[in-house]
């Protein structure tokens, strides 16, 4: 396997700072810096250079990280081919977006345990970019994420990504709203309402604003919130409207979800990701296939 110091450099390249890399690996920043300095001295080259509050790789550092990524890819592919048992068995860790844990993964666990008793599926709730950090460090083997800010590019050679399905988005209205008893509503019908949306910089803010713009209006935002319980409470208390995932685990009892219709209808793309080279491992193929069946049902 690779020199552990090269793994540290790879994590710094992934996260952008020594401090973030150290936290992800449960190490001290000073210890990580010292090991990188020792590696640079041993190789006789500079590996990092400061760039504001972050650091960037030197050409030598980039070459070393590229070598590390290629080695990881080959190792994951080799390890996948070493498993020859017909019935998959063992432990696998899945990191997943909160709404996916509720709607897709939790219902899958009893079925998986019954059909494949030799498989132990462990779940971590997280979202990008943290979920991909867990893949990189080996804390997780498979990632179920929503395509949003923080997701690595499809061309990122460290990961293998595949589309899983669409997560439907509904309008969230207060009980008593004139549209709350309808079976469907268009975004355009909500153009004159007060809105609750995630704050700028939070996940889903861009998606909500883009959906409203595509429908021909800019929402009048009166409150910023992202937590499902907080959004529901604000919609109920103020009469504002919002958007919510159909997979969301909590809905305020005094609100109503109404399916959106018309073009464009907002959805969120779900994807599955693994470390590049590990996508054909039997356990990963098994869990991925089960998730695909759940997403399509």
Automatic annotation (TrEMBL):
Keywords: DNA-binding, Transcription, Transcription regulation. One of its GO terms (cellular component) is protein-DNA complex. InterPro entries: LysR_HTH_N, LysR_subst-bd, WH-like_DNA-bd_sf, WH_DNA-bd_sf. Belongs to the LysR transcriptional regulatory family. It comes from the Bacteria. One of its GO terms (molecular function) is DNA binding. Residues 1-58 form the HTH lysR-type domain. Gene3D superfamilies: Periplasmic binding protein-like II, Winged helix-like DNA-binding domain superfamily/Winged helix DNA-binding domain. This is LysR family transcriptional regulator. Pfam families: HTH_1, LysR_substrate.
């Amino acid at each position: 396997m690779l020199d552990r110091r090269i793994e540290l450099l790879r994590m710094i390249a992934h996260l952008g700072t020594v401090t973030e890399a150290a936290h992800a690996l449960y190490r001290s920043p000073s210890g990580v810096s010292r090991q990188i300095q020792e590696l640079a001295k041993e190789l006789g080259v500079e590996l990092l250079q400061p760039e504001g509050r972050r650091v960037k790789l030197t050409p030598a550092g980039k070459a070393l990280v590229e070598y590390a990524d290629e080695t990881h890819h080959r190792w994951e592919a080799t390890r996948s081919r070493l498993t020859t048992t017909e019935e998959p068995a063992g432990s696998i860790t899945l990191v997943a977006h909160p709404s996916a844990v509720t709607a897709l993964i939790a219902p899958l666990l009893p079925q998986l345990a019954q059909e494949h008793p030799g498989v132990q599926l462990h779940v971590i709730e997280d979202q990008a970019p943290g979920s991909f950090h867990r893949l990189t460090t080996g804390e997780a083997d498979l990632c179920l994420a929503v395509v949003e800010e923080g997701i690595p590019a499809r061309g990122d050679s460290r990961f293998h990504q595949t589309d899983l399905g669409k997560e439907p988005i509904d309008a969230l209205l207060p009980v008593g709203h004139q549209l709350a008893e309808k079976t469907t509503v268009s975004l355009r019908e909500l153009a004159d309402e007060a809105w609750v949306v995630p704050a700028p910089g939070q996940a889903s803010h861009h998606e909500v604003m883009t959906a409203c713009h595509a429908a021909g209006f800019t929402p009048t935002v009166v409150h910023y919130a992202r937590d499902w319980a907080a959004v529901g409470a604000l919609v109920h208390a103020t009469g504002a409207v919002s958007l919510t995932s159909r997979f969301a685990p909590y809905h305020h009892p005094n609100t109503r979800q109404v399916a959106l219709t018309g073009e464009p209808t907002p959805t969120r793309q779900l994807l599955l990701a693994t470390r590049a080279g590990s996508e054909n491992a039997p356990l990963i193929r098994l869990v991925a296939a089960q998730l695909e069946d759940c997403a399509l049902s």
